[in-house]
Specification:
The chain has 680 residues and is α/β, with parallel strands linked by helices. Helix content is 36%, strand content 13%. The protein has 23 helices and 18 strands. Strands 1, 2, 3, 6, 7, 8, 11, 12, 16 and 17 form a ten-stranded mixed beta sheet that branches. Helix 3 runs antiparallel to helix 4, helix 13 crosses helix 22 and helix 17 packs across helix 18. It is globular and about 65 Å long.
């Protein structure tokens, strides 16, 4: 897939500076890293990577891509300059100045990328059903294929009414399902095409080749789920389509099929995936799909699998949909014409991205149908000056641009991705940056930083002989990545100044005993679901206000300002609102429809149930809990069997306890062949 003639290696003498050390973790940083991103070290009795080993793999993978791209095109390549650059990227990632996406931390530099392509390095995708009559199964199989690689996929319902559902012609044949992602997609494709009348349905499906539950997946990583989720998926597809035989496919059918597949992927043990449905605001049936009074069974079975949004139109009446959003947070809103016309709102309409068809599940990226993209997170609040942040931007950009050099396994996706070279340089800890630097200074950094990224893109695109990126910046909601340094995710506010952050672990997880040994509070789940609940004490850095103390209007204005000064893609944000603010939602949508590209809402209510994810505590309780814990030690532990226990959410932080290492500027370039630093 990607021919590696020569692998790039960091200097052993440089890496030796970090071996055996720990960075300045956030309170859940180390456990999140070991659970989610640390790969098993080959030939080391199942031990998983430490952070310095992950960064080494990531940085060497990044520069291996650049080096082989240049070698294959006979372009200039300076090894000494590349070594210096790679070392600086390593130091910036180590100090949490920026981080590759979770996909990158997990897969960059792994053999899977060289053998199977870059799809697994990308965060998100979009697929339209507008051409459903051309190839009925293709959009559904694209979603399944990408989702099984951990890529979040959004879809629309434009194919409604374009295909007649037919009774499958059954042949006395056996379809043997191969034990691979491709094999799972193939059997779903076969079944869907039989309902479109373009292929017969085999009378028998043989799942015997699928490895049993619990078996290791050597190439991609993780644990096999067995054939159960796929068998259930096949049954649910028939459950959706059999009653529709003789009728045209509806938006409900499209959404249900995508949700059924999404449920299969999650049940199949993929590390993480996400779905978003994008429907017509005039489609009354679509808007009621998650009504528990109308569809309690479907909602419980699979309709939970997607966030449902609408493709909003400037000038529409928001009263009815806004009132529905006020009840349960759905639908969300995506203004496609704004995404097509504008980059940053500050720069006016350019229509440079006129082929945009939709957005990704978290709505931070404008995307064509079958397009995928990769995101990188920077942390302005962990910088003290714009000059320092500008240096970080360079290497965050370089990582993201490098990912676009590797084709995926999907030819249709490559035709778009290699033309657009779309990337998303994001920020997390934005509210912390407001508090540390001030809003005006933060927006000034955004404005100057965006201009700098444009200059970088011209320089590096010319060097690599590839197109400039059609769009380059966004704000993603973050989640587990922001937990590593312990900053607030994306543009969201903190829960409170002091709180307990709970996570759930399977009682058989190898993480449990090291956590218990370190003194963390652990309880049996009150739900009797064979899980344990761990409590992490958190103190919010630079705290001034919690999300409860911020109005819905201020949150929306923050989004609009970041859309104006930074994001030429989109700003992903879920605006929380108090009951008395619910009536403002239609007015907000009308007033901000020309200043936003996407937005979603969530009611802010008190969840007075036991073992809630966030529990506010006093300063005294925080100090007491902190006094009882010691550093976590997972150094000799294989944690991969616990890979699906964390959920994305707001970040939390306490004072770090592991041994730390100097900030990047304190460690100069290390020349190969010596352990002594040299001046640069």
């Amino acid at each position: 897939m990607f021919r590696v003639v020569e692998g790039f290696k960091l200097s052993d003498d440089f890496v030796a500076w970090f071996r055996g050390k720990q960075p300045t973790w956030g309170p859940l940083g180390y456990i999140t890293f070991k659970r989610t991103y640390a790969r098993v070290v080959p030939g080391d009795s199942g031990r998983t990577e430490e952070y310095w080993e992950t960064i080494q793999r990531v940085v060497e993978g990044c520069y291996t891509i650049q080096q082989n791209h240049c070698r294959s095109l006979k372009l200039p390549w300076n090894h000494t300059k590349a070594q210096r650059s790679a070392q600086e990227m390593f130091r910036l990632i180590w100090a949490f100045k920026f981080l590759p996406p979770g996909r990158g931390l997990w897969m960059m530099g792994a053999d899977y990328i060289w053998e199977r392509g870059s799809a697994a390095l990308n965060n998100c995708a979009f697929v339209s059903t507008e051409e459903l009559e051309v190839s009925f199964a293709e959009p559904f199989c694209f979603l399944m294929d990408m989702s099984m690689l951990g890529v979040g996929v959004a879809f629309d319902t434009k194919g409604a009414g374009k295909v007649h559902i037919l009774r499958p012609v059954v042949l006395d044949e056996t379809f043997v399902v191969e034990d691979s992602k491709e094999g799972w997609c193939d059997v779903v494709r076969c079944l869907l095409e039989s309902f479109a009348g373009t292929r017969p349905r085999p009378a028998n499906l043989d799942f015997s080749r699928i490895r049993p539950i619990g078996a290791p997946i050597k190439t991609f990583g993780g644990i096999a789920p067995g054939p159960g989720p796929l068998i259930e998926c096949i049954g649910n597809i028939e459950r959706v389509l059999n009653p529709r035989i003789g009728q045209r496919i509806s938006s409900t059918d499209i959404t249900d099929l995508m949700n059924v597949i999404g449920k299969c992927v999650v049940s199949g043990g993929v590390r993480r995936t996400a779905e978003l449905a994008l429907g017509d605001p005039e489609d009354a049936e679509y808007l009621k799909l998650k009504d528990p009074n109308l569809y309690p069974e479907q909602l419980k079975l699979w309709r939970w699998a997607s966030n449902n949004s609408i493709s909003a139109v400037t000038g529409m009446d928001y009263q009815e949909v806004g009132a529905q959003t006020a009840k349960n947070g759905e639908p969300g809103y995506f203004w496609r014409e704004n995404a097509r016309a504008f980059g940053r709102l500050k720069d006016g309409a350019t229509w440079a991205d006129a082929k945009v068809a939709g957005t990704n599940p978290c709505a931070e990226q404008s995307l064509e149908s079958y397009e995928i993209c990769n995101l990188v997170e920077t942390f302005p609040s962990l910088h003290d000056s714009f000059d320092e942040y500008q240096r970080t931007i360079k290497f965050a950009y370089l990582y993201a641009k490098t990912v676009t050099l590797v084709p995926t396994h999907n030819e249709r996706t490559n035709a778009i991705m290699l033309r657009n070279r779309r990337i998303g340089l994001s920020q997390s800890g934005i509210i912390e940056s407001f508090e540390k630097h001030g809003r005006r200074t933060h927006f000034e950094w955004c404005d100057k930083g965006y201009e700098y990224i444009g200059k970088l893109d011209k320089i590096y695109s010319q060097w690599l002989c590839i197109p400039e990126s059609i769009k380059k910046t966004s704000i993603k909601p973050s989640g587990t990545v922001s937990l590593l340094p312990g900053v607030t995710p994306g543009i969201h506010y903190a829960h409170s100044q002091y709180y307990m952050r709970t996570i759930r672990l399977d009682r058989t997880s190898p993480l449990v005993e090291p956590i218990r040994h370190a003194g963390y509070r652990i309880e049996e789940s009150v739900y009797g679901d064979n899980t344990l609940v761990v409590y992490f004490p958190v103190e919010q850095r630079n705290f001034k206000r919690s999300k409860v103390g911020v109005s819905i209007w201020e949150q929306v204005e923050n989004i609009a300002q970041m859309q104006y000064y930074w994001a030429d893609n989109q700003v992903s944000a879920t605006v929380t609102f108090k009951p008395e603010e619910a009536c403002d939602i239609p007015n907000i949508l009308e007033l901000y429809e020309t200043r936003l590209k996407s937005i979603s809402f969530l009611p802010l209510t008190d969840h007075n149930y036991p073992q809630a994810p966030y529990q506010e505590i006093t300063h005294e309780s925080y100090l007491l809990a902190l006094s009882k814990i010691t550093p976590l030690d997972f150094s000799s532990l294989n944690t991969k069997e616990a890979q699906d226990i964390f959920c994305d959410g707001d970040k939390c932080e306490i004072q770090p306890t592991p041994e730390h290492f100097p900030e990047p500027q304190e460690l100069p370039f290390v020349e190969e062949g010596t352990r002594e630093p040299v001046e640069v």
